[in-house]
Specification:
Number of strands: 5
Order of helices and strands: HEEHEHHEE
Strand order of the largest sheet: 1-2-5-4-3
Number of helices: 4
Helix content: 25-40%
Amino acid sequence: MASNSDSIYYVLSKIKRHPELIKMQRAHYTNTIMLGIDDQLKVADAGFYFPAMKLMVNRLSNDFVAKNEDLLDDYFRLTNCTQPNYHNVWVTTAHLPTEHSYLLELSYE
């Protein structure tokens, strides 16, 4: 995965503006937020970025994090973390066809 993916940015931006696309939201661990998103959302190269029944895990590039800090901060506020301090962001994605959902998890470290 390109760690500065336009597709990942698109998904994060789209669901921020259209929260009705979120089917499930859970602060899984202290520093993570897991989202289930309706797989009807049109995503460029969805098969690559959201592989069916497989997890894809990548660290977002420092440039991506710096450029999209406000957007990532919005999702960080959904975690159970009390200290607003992170240096790395990991993104885990998958497609769950039987659930008709894309899984997207952000992990802040």
